[in-house]
Design a protein that fits this description.
Low-confidence stretches of chain A: none
Number of domains of chain A: 2
Largest sheet of chain B: 7 strands, mixed
Distance between the termini of chain B: 29 Å
Distance between the termini of chain A: 56 Å
Helix content of chain A: 25-40%
Strand order of the largest sheet of chain A: 15-14-13-16-17
Number of helices of chain A: 14
Radius of gyration of chain B: 15 Å
Number of strands of chain B: 7
Oligomer: heterodimer
Shape of chain B: globular
CATH topology of the largest domain in chain A: Aconitase, domain 3
CATH superfamily of the largest domain in chain A: Aconitase, domain 3
Low-confidence stretches of chain B: none
CATH architecture of the largest domain in chain A: 2-Layer Sandwich
């Protein structure tokens, strides 16, 4: 039998085939179809327009109104209402509203809704996050979501895979976020267009589950269809604690084919900062120079998990954020929010002068909860720094890991934790 | 089907926030989205684009978000077709699904300037620049995608297959 990558194996299984080859068009069963308050209204409109009356499985269609919530204005309230009405009408098991709502790509893994070995499509480009669990997951538009909600299937062209091998040991303050920023800086924002990115090597194995999801989250920023890390003991433990379905653990065959293999010595890597206005515009922390800041945001589907809160609290403990900037911290889910509260992080954050936001995508996409004025500059642990991404089109967004963001909040300019 | 229109020319990596900024995503009404199409990249576009005009851009057009609002805004603004060196994959799928014609052609992008008049045969992929009299051939649309187009888009195709 043809040796396959983990991605090919998951797609073959869900297509009901023994093998697949890159370039094949396959119709695959989806385990989870996901939408949010921006994308699901269009999917629901399409669903109704062609006369569909039921979803393929009420336990597998997931709606999370996380982008403009708590509702920022009347229009966003109307969009959320479309989701709420649909969720109730179709008795969806996984609909999260109000105090149960969290940033979708942090919420679904935490609740065990997505499990290793799944095929997941979501009408949100950062759906690729679940590759951190060893699932094939990818972003789609609203019409693809509507089709999957009805049929439980989606067509894919089987992607070629690029293997990224991180050998050696990670340096201090270097996280999954830095590894993916390093890659995007090297290959560009379309460097993995249409491809699956597979991350391996001892440094990747050493990453926590949170950090693995953070890494896979930004595969889309290199244009990839998906990012994935093969499951190991950490994945199994994570899944056993929460999976609501039986996980399936896949790994790539030794002789699997890759269109490219890129190797790194992890011990030589520094924290990275992406400068405006593309995630590929990266520099090593030591080469940043003096960049004064008006705002720091720690949160999002990239870096709003408990590990991110923990590192921010460790650095901010007993310190004050610079009076020149606003520090906004957004725990990504109610679970992370409660755990941060229990562990005393909120005490540290508020004493440091931070604003603690309820779980929301909020400022990451320039929605609300921290919009920038013309000429302002933010450092964020988010995933995109496009022109105008966080507010005025003459504002700037820089991207980093949470340790650098927390230290920079104290310094008032981009700086590493060791500078404190 | 043949279309003819005036060119709006843009560079590489035109992201979805440039096509339609997230602050306008509190609605999915096509006419409303069209008012702000390309606002970040080109503030004159929405007010001056004419029915049938064509966007020509460099590589990786539509990168970033999965928002289908991006091709919806472009189509509702009156644009008949987007020609680029390459498209980000979610934008590519979305365009086929909601019926915005898109073509990939390096040479046409390199030999076309803003304001040129193009004639495009969507069935054959032939692109004629009537301003400088050059002709180009776009990459063929994959047969599977062509079937989707012939069926009238993804939702119509699902209905045709009796899956609703």
């Amino acid at each position: 039998m043809r040796p396959m990558t983990i991605t090919e194996k998951i797609l073959a299984k869900h297509a009901g085939q023994k093998t697949v080859t890159p370039g094949d068009l396959v119709n695959v069963k989806v385990d989870i179809a996901l939408g949010n308050d921006i994308t699901a209204p269009i999917a629901i409109r399409e669903f109704k327009r062609i006369g569909a009356t039921k979803v393929f499985n009420k336990n597998r269609v997931v709606l999370v109104p996380d982008h403009f919530t708590p509702n920022k204005d009347i229009n966003s309230a109307e969009q959320c209402k479309i989701l709420r009405d649909f969720a109730h009408e179709h008795k969806l098991k996984h609909y999260y509203d109000g105090g149960e709502c969290g940033v979708e790509h942090a919420l679904l893994p935490e609740k065990g809704i997505v499990v290793p070995g799944d095929v997941v499509i979501g009408a949100d480009s950062h759906t690729c996050t679940y590759g951190g669990l060893g699932a094939f997951s990818t972003g789609s538009g609203s019409t693809d979501l509507a089709a999957a909600m009805i049929t439980g299937e989606i067509w894919f062209k089987v992607p070629e895979s690029i293997k990224f091998v991180f050998k050696g040991k990670l340096g201090k303050w270097v996280s999954g976020k830095d590894l993916i920023l390093q890659i995007i800086g090297d290959i560009g924002v379309d460097g993995a267009l249409y491809k699956a990115m597979e991350f391996t090597g001892s440094a990747v194995r050493s990453l926590s589950m949170d950090s693995r999801m953070s890494m896979c989250n930004m595969a889309i920023e290199a244009g990839a269809k998906s990012g994935i890390i093969a499951p190991d003991a950490k994945t199994r433990k994570y899944a056993e604690e929460r999976a609501e379905r039986k996980p399936v653990y896949y790994e790539s065959d030794k002789a699997a084919e890759y269109c490219q293999i890129i190797e790194y010595d992890a011990s030589k890597l520094q924290p990275k900062v992406a400068f405006p206005h593309l995630p590929s515009n990266t520099r090593d922390l030591s080469d940043v120079g003096k960049v004064a800041l008006d705002q720091v945001v720690i949160g999002s589907c990239t870096n709003g998990r408990i590990e991110d809160m923990a590192v921010a609290a460790k650095i901010l403990k007993g310190k004050k954020a610079s009076k020149k900037l606003r520090l906004i911290i957004i725990p990504a889910t109610p679970g992370i929010y409660n755990e941060s509260l229990r562990l005393g992080y909120f005490d540290t954050f508020t004493k440091a002068g931070a604003i603690i936001s309820p779980p929301t995508c909020g400022p990451c996409l320039g929605g609300h909860m921290g919009i920038l004025a013309a000429g302002e500059r933010a450092l964020a642990t988010t995933n995109r720094n496009f022109v105008g991404r966080m507010g005025h089109k003459e504002s700037e967004v820089y991207l980093s890991n949470p340790a650098v963001a927390a230290a920079s909040a104290v310094k008032g300019r981009i700086a590493g934790p060791d500078s404190l | 089907m043949k279309i003819k229109g005036s060119v709006w020319k843009y560079g590489a990596d035109i992201d979805t926030d440039k096509i339609i900024s997230a602050k306008y995503l509190t609605t999915s009404d096509p006419a409303e989205l069209a008012k702000y199409c390309m606002e970040v990249e080109d503030k004159d576009f929405a007010a001056n684009v004419k029915e049938g005009d064509i966007i020509v851009a460099d590589k990786n057009f539509g990168c970033g978000s999965s928002r289908e609002h991006a091709p919806i805004a472009i189509k509702a603004a009156g644009v008949s077709c987007v020609i680029a060196k390459s498209f980000a994959r979610i934008f590519y799928r979305n365009s086929f699904n909601m019926g915005l014609p898109i073509l990939e052609c390096d040479e046409a992008v390199d030999s076309t300037s803003a304001g040129d008049i193009l004639e495009v045969n969507l069935d054959t992929g032939k692109i004629k620049n009537l301003t400088n009299n050059k002709e180009f051939q776009a990459l063929p649309v994959p047969p599977f995608m062509q079937t989707l187009i012939n069926d009238g888009g993804l939702m119509a195709s699902i209905k045709k297959r009796g899956l609703v």
